[in-house]
Amino acid sequence: MDFSRKGTIRVSTSRGMTYNLKQEIDQMKRFEIIKEDDLGLELRGDMLDCMYLNMHCRCAYKVLFLIKEFQSSDAEHLYIRLNRAIKWDSFVDVAGYFSVSGKIKNESILDERFAFVRVKDAIADYFMHKFDRRPDSGPRKHGVNFFLFWEEQNVRIFLDTSGETLSKHGYRKIPGKAPMVEALAAACVMGSGFERDQVFINPMCGSGTLAIEAALMQANKAPGLMREDFSFMQVPGYDASSWEKIKQNAESKIIAAEPYVKILASDISEDAVEIAQVNAQAAGVEDRISFDVCDFKKSIVPQGKGVVFFNPEYGLRLGEEEKLEPVYQEIGDFFKKECQGKTGAVFTGNLNLAKKIGLRTKKRIPYFNAQIECRLLLFEIF
Ligand SMILES: C[S@@+](CC[C@H](N)C(=O)[O-])C[C@H]1O[C@@H](n2cnc3c(N)ncnc32)[C@H](O)[C@@H]1O
């Protein structure tokens, strides 16, 4: 494949996060966004741009390069178009491996796996016809991945240049209890308005995701530096030296840690703090975060502008909500007593509990944690 051929790139994300994704892509100052929706945005670029986006996007799930779009009403028509209209050997080597996934909303398809099998057949038959042999295929994401969007009649087949989702940033060695997806945590830190030279306090840190994401942003360390494998590396035409250049450029942008620590993370659970420290070490930001085991009411809040960010449990099971009410009230009290001049941030999936904080919100930003509709609530504390 010609890595310098321009085309449509779709950067996908989770519902609610397009705004943050757009913010970070705008900051790159090298792309013009041509379309955006609830699940991502689109721009023009080549495979080298895809590699760059894979390296730098904190809020993305996948970077997809459009191969072809056309209309199709049923799986047989889809098979014929895909089999005949695309030179598949430019995307996957005959001795390689590929997988197919996607999102389908077409009434002729009752089980999306059937559509994926027909895409796989179209590709495999193309190779059999041309070479009398074919690349291996299956569900694993270690080879070349193709992504099918099929909504009503509209088919779009993409090269998924990421492979495994980019929403995992590669540093989580131990998950801990109810951890946030790294991309969501990054979006929330951005949404909180945190800036690099400010303090970030994360009581109830759990496995440390929010504090680690804040530290990574402060360090300007790209998420792609913590990951070895991307699907674009398996595409014929990939040149490792271009990736090396993108990597070196990202490394050169890392901002050295300042001698005083501005990110504080604590949790009442000793286990959680140990896990957070292991994860921070894997992310290479352990020297930027000061960890403590304590009840949140005892958290130290240093002077200066910044964000105090809570992600308390939000009681999904019966009876849990009642038990958590005093916790939310105490978070509100803590904001009022200890956090003057700061932005208070609470990420929760329970708006009844959120009311117990007892402060007027400055902003309420909707996000989704898996299928649960959540809110990032921001408070200006005077
Ligand atoms: C939903 S988890 C936080 C998950 C975290 N955002 C992550 O990504 O891993 C809530 C955390 O609050 C902690 N916690 C509960 N009550 C606390 C309290 N009174 N003081 C400090 N931490 C508390 C729990 O131990 C748990 O780790």
Descriptors for this entry?
382 residues, 8-stranded mixed sheet, VC0802-like, Rossmann fold, 7-stranded mixed sheet, alpha/beta, elongated, single chain, 2 domains, binds S-adenosylmethionine, 10 helices
Q: Strands, helices and their partners?
A:
Elements: E1 7-12, H1 18-28, E2 33-37, E3 40-45, H2 47-56, E4 62-71, H3 75-85, E5 97-105, H4 112-131, E6 136-137, E7 144-151, E8 154-160, H5 182-191, E9 199-202, H6 209-219, H7 240-252, E10 263-267, H8 270-283, E11 289-293, E12 306-310, H9 320-338, E13 343-348, H10 351-355, E14 363-369, E15 372-380
Parallel strand pairs: 5-6, 5-7, 9-10, 9-12, 10-11, 12-13
Antiparallel strand pairs: 1-3, 1-4, 2-3, 4-8, 7-8, 13-15, 14-15
The structure holds S-adenosylmethionine.
Question: What percentage of residues falls in helices of 4 or more residues?
Answer: 25-40%
Average pLDDT, rounded to a whole number, is: 95
Helix and strand content put the structural class at: alpha/beta
What's the number of helices? 10
Give an overview of the whole structure.
The protein is of the alpha/beta class and 382 residues long. The protein folds into two domains: 7-160, VC0802-like (2-Layer Sandwich), CATH 3.30.2130.30; 182-220 and 231-380, Rossmann fold, CATH 3.40.50. The protein is built from ten helices and 15 strands. The chain has helices spanning 18-28, 47-56, 75-85, 112-131, 182-191, 209-219, 240-252, 270-283, 320-338, 351-355, and strands at 7-12, 33-37, 40-45, 62-71, 97-105, 136-137, 144-151, 154-160, 199-202, 263-267, 289-293, 306-310, 343-348, 363-369, 372-380. Strands 2-3-1-4-8-7-5-6 form an eight-stranded mixed beta sheet. Strands 11-10-9-12-13-15-14 form a seven-stranded mixed beta sheet. Helix 5 packs across helix 6. It is elongated. The N and C termini lie far apart (57 Å). The mean pLDDT is 95. It binds S-adenosylmethionine. Residues 176-180, 203-204, 206-207, 209-210, 267-269, 272, 295-296, 311-313 line the site of S-adenosylmethionine (SAM). S-adenosylmethionine binds at residues 176-180, 203-204, 206-207, 209-210, 267-269, 272, 295-296, 311-313.
